[in-house]
Amino acid sequence: MSEWHKTDQTKTPTGMRDVALSRRAVEIYRDRYAYADGHGYLFTTKHHTPIQISAFNTFLRNAAKKLAIDKPVSSHIFRHTHISKLAELGVPIYVIQQRVGHSNSRVTQEIYTHVTHEALVKNLDQLENL
């Protein structure tokens, strides 16, 4: 069962949308909200100040370097991964587009097509049995 939560601050007008959250996501949200203790931010430094995106991206780049991942890494990778996983699960493109707030399907389709191609290559053995 999903729950619904609203915000009044978004990056773009298409950011104003309803997004269903899994029970686990709601649990995490509630835990972080309780920890925020009135400071207004779900994810903070140990001093309850907001985590700066540049600091988070630096952390990700350093982690990628330690793991010998030699492709560009930033916080945006989580958004791309979310779209990729939805596509791999067979979620219709128009549902993905609405969920992530793309104003048109072109960007969603590019990621979706890329993932579909990867899934086909990855599952080539299954295609042999068609």
Keywords:
130 residues; mainly alpha; 2 domains; 6 helices; 55% helix; globular
Describe this structure in words.
This protein is an all-alpha fold and 130 residues long. It has two domains: 1-51, no CATH class; 70-130, no CATH class. Helix content is 55%, strand content 0%. It contains six helices and no strands. Helix 3 packs across helix 5 and helix 4 (93-100) crosses helix 5. The longest helix is centred in the last third of the chain and has 18 residues, at 105-122. The model has no long low-confidence stretch (mean pLDDT 81).
Q: Concise description?
A:
With 130 residues, the chain is an all-alpha fold. It has helices at 23-36, 53-66, 76-88, 93-100, 105-122, 124-128.
The geometry reads as globular
- Give the end-to-end Cα distance, rounded to a whole number of Å: 36 Å
What string, H for helix and E for strand, traces the elements in order?
A: HHHHHH
What fraction strand?
A: under 5%
Topology:
Elements: H1 23-36, H2 53-66, H3 76-88, H4 93-100, H5 105-122, H6 124-128
